[in-house]
Every structure is written in C-alpha cells, then in structure tokens.
Design goal:
Helix 2 packs parallel to helix 3. The protein has helices spanning about 75-85, 100-120, 155-165, 180-190, 205-210, 240-245, 260-270, 330-340, 345-350, 355-360, and strands at about 1-10, 15-25, 30-35, 45, 50-55, 55-60, 65, 70, 90-95, 125-130, 130-135, 170-175, 195, 215-220, 230, 235, 250-255, 275-280, 295-300, 305-310, 315, 325, 375-380, 385-390, 395. The strands form 5 sheets. Strands 6, 9, 10, 11, 12, 13, 14, 17 and 18 form a 9-stranded parallel β-sheet that branches. The mean pLDDT is about 95. It is of the alpha/beta class and about 400 residues long.
Length: about 400
C-alpha cells in the first residue's frame, strides 16, 4: 500500500518543513520533501490542510490509565489502559511496573508474555516497546509514592527469572547506593538494558561512580531524587546536581506542569537540551478517570485504605505530602512544553519521540526519516490530535 500525505507541516528533529509532503510505502516512510508532491499512483491521499505531521509519541514511563494498572491488572485491563494512551498520541510505549513483591512481578510478567502475540495484531493500541522496571531495588530514603516496604537489594535469582520471562525488559530503575547496586548497573549495561537512577538517595559522588558503572539515565528528575541539602554547616549535592555535571547523562522529565513547574521545565531544558531529555507521563491508573476535583479515589471499589487524591490536574497521596504519579497523557506533555515552558515545537516533539527512542534502543521509530516506521500523528495548530497513523495505516 502506498500513501501520500500532502499539504503538511512536517516536524523533523531539527526543523519544520512547512509546505511538505510524505510518502508511506506499506509500513515505512519511503520519502518526504517540500513543494510539489511526487507523481505516481497512491492507494490513499491524506490532505493535512497545513496541519503538523509529527512522529508518534514514545512514552517510556507510564503505569496505566482508566483505573487499570500495568502491574496489577489482568490482560484486558492492560489493553484498555494502552488504548487510552494511544488515543492521546502515544504510538510506542514501555509499560512500567512499580515496586512490588516478587510474586506480583511474576504474575505481571506472565500477563505481558501472554499478550506478546496480541500486541502485534492490534492497530488500536501503542506498539509494545518493552518493559520498564521501576524497582524493586530502590531506596526508601528519597520521598516518593511507591510502596517502600517492597524495596530490597538486587537478588540475581529474581533478576534472572524476570529476564527469562521478559527478555524485552528495556529499562530498569534502581538505587545505586544499595548493597550490590553498582554491580547491578554493570550487569544491566552488559545486557543492553538502560540502567536508570531513581527512587534513590545517592550522593553526588555515588552518582559519578554509578555513571562509570553503567547508570547513564535518571528517572523523573527531581521526583524521588536527592539534591542540594545541608549536613550541618556543609552544603552537599545529590542526583540532580550530578545530572547537570554529567553532560551525557540522560534524564526523564514529567511535563504535566505540576510535578515540575514552568521554571523547572525551563531549567532542565536549558541545561540538558532536547537530545538528553525524555518527556514522560508517569501516568497512573487514574489517568482518564473523570472525578470531581479533590476526590479521594480508591485503588479498588470499596477500599478506603489505598487510594489517591485527584486535585489540580495531578494525583497526590491522601496526606497531600507528595505526588502519587501523574494523570497526564502525552498530548498534554506537548502542550505544556510548548505553551507553558515556551519550548519550540521541534524540540518538544523530539523529547517525546526521537530522544526516548534513541535512549531505549528503539531504532526503527521516533523520527520522520526515510526507512523509519510510519507511526505518525497529524496535529492542528492547538496541538490537538486529528489523525493517528500506526505502521503506515490510519488508525484514527
């Protein structure tokens, strides 16, 4: 099948092509350019009417949506959550498993293993890019909303089983200061898995050492990360300051406008740049749930012990002492980056597509480039999603 998109403003990694066209051959981008469209037969012609054509969004840190959680839900629930994010522009996803007990990980990974053939068949959910393990080898010292009672030192009996069940684990968040944490980084690097520092109270010096041990990524910068503090009269640095000093350290940025206010988004962008930032949703099961502002929403119906407050566009723990994950979708991230932080659309899209794809070894997606997979979005001038194209076919 051969498709032409005409009258498009193409968003490349370094510029816009304002009078652009793009040709899809089967599932791949065959050619693109500006000015007069190419001749030839096309099975389908899409007129973008001057709208943006963007690579599909790549969300590499997302826990769920519409009351479904990737760690706890069954296979139907996993697909339902993925579908919600797809409708908001995410065409590739790394479902993220939070820190839980060993038995729950086994159950979760079994669910994903059974879904692998289903992922390849569906055209109404994001492509499955692999698993992100956010735990359990983290530290309870840094504030965060995870269940810290499940945190533990790296256990290679567990690790080898998880990798046997899910050889598609792409990224693993851990605290390098734990016993065996540095060796775990080396292990992940040898396996080709992104080793990410997160839910950690590592010192500045420990982060520098961790970088040499394979940790080249930081999970949701500022959230559950150590940073500037005093020990008596002495000033001490942490993960955040190490991220500034290590030029090639990649970072995640929750761009919902709440976890990181405008000035923090601008600071991270100014120092790290679009080549080293993945914008992530970190969305939890309450993403897409319509409840009155200030509502307490339980994890399960009738459970008053476990839940979150949905207020001001974010989820908070019931005591309101910290955030409990976002309720954002990827299109909200783009709008926040452009309209709140003032980041240009080229770099904003890059942080939602090419950069997360590069970091996580997803080499066939994330850019409008010849030979890349045709996972594309058509966006209007207000950055609303008008059309979703998955593997070269119009999916919405």
């Amino acid at each position: 099948m051969r498709t032409l998109i005409k009258n498009a403003c193409l968003i490349l990694t370094d510029r816009l092509i304002r009078s652009g066209w793009l040709v899809i051959e089967n599932s791949l981008i065959d050619d693109f350019g500006d000015g007069t469209c190419p001749d030839g037969h096309f099975d389908e012609v899409l007129d973008a009417q001057g709208k943006y054509v963007s690579p599909g969004f790549v969300d590499t840190h997302v826990h769920g949506a519409v009351r479904q959680d990737f760690t706890e839900s069954d296979t139907d629930g996993i697909l339902e959550a993925m579908r919600h994010h797809f409708l908001h522009g995410t065409t590739t996803m790394l479902p993220t498993l939070t820190s839980v007990k060993h038995e729950q990980y086994v159950k979760s990974l079994e669910n994903f293993r059974s879904l692998i053939p289903v992922f390849a068949e569906r055209n109404d959910i994001p492509e499955f890019g692999g698993i992100h393990m956010e735990g359990p080898y983290c530290s309870g010292a840094a504030l965060g909303a995870q269940n810290t009672s499940t945190y533990r030192d790296p256990d290679y009996r567990e690790i080898e089983l998880y990798l046997e069940m899910a050889p598609y684990i792409k990224k693993w968040t851990a605290a390098p200061e734990r016993n065996g944490g540095m060796d775990f980084g080396r292990f992940l690097e040898k396996k080709g898995i992104v080793a990410s520092i997160g839910h950690s109270n590592a010192t500045y010096e420990q982060v520098l050492h961790a970088y040499e041990c394979g940790y080249h990524h930081i999970t949701h910068l500022y959230s559950a990360c150590s940073f500037y503090h005093r020990e008596g009269a002495y000033r001490k640095a942490g993960i955040v300051e190490a991220a500034w000093m290590l030029d090639n350290m990649d970072v995640e940025m929750i761009t919902d406008g709440i976890h990181l206010p405008k000035e923090f988004l601008q600071l991270i962008y100014k120092i790290k740049g679009a080549d080293h930032i993945s914008m992530i949703t970190d969305a939890i099961r309450y993403c897409g749930v319509d409840v009155p502002d200030g509502s307490f929403v339980p994890y399960t119906d009738g459970d008053s012990r476990r839940g979150v407050i949905i207020e001001g566009g974010v989820a908070m723990v019931p005591e309101r002492t910290c955030f409990a994950g976002s309720i954002a979708t990827a299109d909200r991230l783009l709008k926040t980056a452009v309209n709140v932080a003032g980041i240009g659309i080229v770099d904003a899209v890059k942080m939602l597509s090419a950069t997360p794809a590069r970091i996580n070894g997803l080499t066939d997606i994330g850019q409008i480039t010849r030979g890349k997979k045709a996972n594309l979005l058509i966006l209007d001038s207000d950055l609303n999603i008008c059309t979703i194209i998955l593997r070269g076919k119009k999916a919405r």
